[in-house]
Amino acid sequence: MTETPEILPLPNRKPVDAVVARRLIAAQYPQWSHLDVRPVDAQGWDNCTFRLGDELLVRLPTAEEYALAVEKEHRWLPVLAPALPLNIPVPLARGVPDAAFPHHWSVYRWIEGEPASRSVIEDEPAFAVRLAGFLASLQRIDPAGGPGPGLHNWFRGGPLTTYDWWTRAALARLDGLIRTEAAEEIWERASRAPWDGEPAWFHGDMASGNLLMKDGALAAVIDFGTCGVGDPACDLAIAWTTLTGESRAAFRDRLGVDEATWVRGQGWALWKALVVCAGAVRDGDSLPADASFVLEEILAAQ
What we know:
Layout: H1 18-28, E1 37-39, E2 47-52, E3 56-61, H2 64-80, E4 91-95, E5 105-109, E6 114-115, H3 124-140, H4 164-173, H5 180-192, E7 200-202, E8 211-214, E9 217-221, E10 228-230, H6 238-241, H7 245-255, H8 259-282, H9 289-300
Antiparallel strand pairs: 1-2, 2-3, 3-5, 4-5, 6-8, 7-10, 8-9
Helix pairs in contact: 3-7, 4-5, 4-8, 5-8, 8-9
């Protein structure tokens, strides 16, 4: 297992605007310089993303640490795509740093779809089974040579204990606002849950914003910046962030998940929800509705 640091570094993010994207395209890919460049409606954290005409997009990393994923995506996404039952991004071109933008960057083909929020999923059990089928296919792909846990994916696929310090700091900040004793018990159980399986491919950021719906069904999975090879339990967080009740059970049954893996997946979801809620409290805001929902689902299942 890759050695992990006691505290993960916080990236020095430097988002950029469409002017930068337009300049990079004109200088390095003049065949596309006539196309309009405009920001996407919902920006991510790791990359600034821009539409390039109607059929392409440009992804510009916001920090050196996030730029580590560019080489990985160009190496592995063309390998993964043919083996998967849903559409995924495949890079078309790789840009290089220049004097004003210090990172490698990418051009992809635009994938149509609407993020898979609970309000747009028409048949949640069917969605859950289709998503589980995608993950099962991903896990069956030969992992030989694939990237293990590391800074390129913030140690997804590694042990949950990598995030123990962060989780406990969040619990301390949330004391009196949530059921911290119950949450800590779940976290400790998840951290102790053993993994003795073979390394497998995982996506690493199974969030609703990275799942695209079309005509009422799951059609594509995007943003593989945190993908890698290791313990795939991190992908099970989606069972708690987006799925509920019957659909959660259908998801687990389709994947055939054992108890220890299921508990570790619950731990990944708990970590993220706690950190999001603690960040809101630190900033003087109320607990975010989505993260609070996840906490309630996890605590109710204790």
